[in-house]
Amino acid sequence: MNSFSPTEDTIAAIATAVSPGQGSIAAIRISGCAAIEISKSIVDVPGIQDWSSHKVLYGHVTEENQKNYIDEVLILVMRGPRSFTGEDVVEIHCHGGIIPVQRILERILAFPDARRAEPGEFSQRAVLHGRISLTQAESISELVSARSQKAAELAINGIKGDIHTKILSIRQRLLEQLTEIEARIDFEEDLPILDETQVKNEIIAIKRELNELIENAKRGSRVRSGLKVAIAGRPNVGKSSLMNRLSKQEKAIVTDLPGTTRDLLESEIVLEGIPVTFIDTAGIRETKNIIEKIGISRTKETLIQSDLIILIFDCSEGWTREDELILKQLPTNIPRLIVGNKSDLKSNNHNEKNQKYISEENQKVIISAKTGQGEVDLINNLLKKCGSSQTHGLEIALNERQLDLANSTMGSLKNMDRVFAENLPWDFWTIDLRQAINYLGELTGDDLTEGLLDNIFSKFCIGK
């Protein structure tokens, strides 16, 4: 268990997004021993004032003189431990916007017992009070930032405790093996001989489960962070038309003039549960136009940072020498998909040699950005190239921090293979086994330092 406890300060923060003219309702959250008394001091509640737990009161937040009203509000009272943080919590729901929300928060922070909450501090207190696990808290943050329905589903499963339960089960199984081994070290003469084969088989089974979690985490990363797809090619082959087709809106200017796109245009859509950002780049060609040169330079930088490059050529003209020169300039370490556009036009060039070259690379997709022909085929090939075509069956996915610890756990368990192979004494069996257990304890939050916990929650938004 953690040896440190949350601060006794009463904290407050705006718990909803705030912007001018956006959102009819906003919420200010207060947590701590002074939360209820502070709330009583700043609101005027008519009639019977029932401040017992899980009640909703109606009233007005007043200025310091307790005469002028700041806003009409609802006050939600949740006494600890039956609250999100495990402490006394009050939520004040007021009108949205900026002015009323900020003025109410200022009234709360004027009290000496209150201070502004740090990022993620409400969730951190919930973890320290045992209301939720660390992985559940991280899943709450992931739900807030989810960019697709699949990402939200993964986050909900984490909030339900699926990640915590899975890791806890694996850790318990390792603890059982460690207990058996250490018992033989201390009481070898009093216990039956240890079944070494059973221990080895259990470690193998656990490594198999961990490896599945690690592979699923890689798939989950695509679901959460999305893909960046750069659309490249000669001028006027239909890059902007393709992006407009995929995004279902006129993001880019489309003309018959070559070199129309001078800057990078982005559009994000969700394909099969994966957020995909398409980047319409400037056409790559030799030019003396300074502005177009800058656009081409930015294109080359973007290509390096992409998860996939779609190289478009005009299939009505056929694969040209210019297309091949561009292909040779593409980063070799980035997956690419060659797309022949303008299939709706009559082909004037059937260069069999060049068309055969593309087919051998198994990268060609023929479409019409104008009519939509071949769009489904393009999307399927795109997701397949990025390794993100299979999201079905993905129920839980570790985040980056959790994945690092899962990999470290796997490394410790793999070290045991050498111990087994060299038939070393049982003392050596426990070294890496204990380290693996510690890594999983850090993953679930059962074995954390205060500094590490602060670092994790500092990445949360304020008010969460």
Strand content: 15-25%
Structural class: alpha/beta
Biggest sheet, spatial arrangement of strands: 3-4-5-6-2-1-7
Poorly predicted regions are 251-263, 350-354
CATH architecture of the domain at 227-306 and 308-385: 3-Layer(aba) Sandwich
CA-based gyration radius: 29 Å
- Strand count, sense and closure of the main sheet? 7 strands, mixed
SS field, number of helical segments: 15
Tell me which oligomeric state these chains represent: single chain
**Average pLDDT level:** 82
* Number of strand segments: 13
End-to-end C-alpha gap: 23 Å
| Mass-distribution shape | flat
What is the strand and helix layout of this fold?
Elements: E1 10-14, E2 25-31, H1 35-42, E3 43-44, E4 55-62, E5 69-78, E6 89-95, H2 99-109, E7 114-116, H3 121-128, H4 134-144, H5 149-159, H6 162-187, H7 196-225, E8 227-233, H8 239-247, E9 265-271, E10 274-280, H9 290-304, E11 308-314, H10 321-329, E12 336-341, H11 352-360, E13 364-366, H12 375-385, H13 400-421, H14 426-444, H15 450-457
Parallel strand pairs: 1-7, 8-10, 8-11, 11-12, 12-13
Antiparallel strand pairs: 1-2, 2-6, 3-4, 4-5, 5-6, 9-10
Helix pairs in contact: 4-5, 6-7, 6-14, 7-13, 13-14
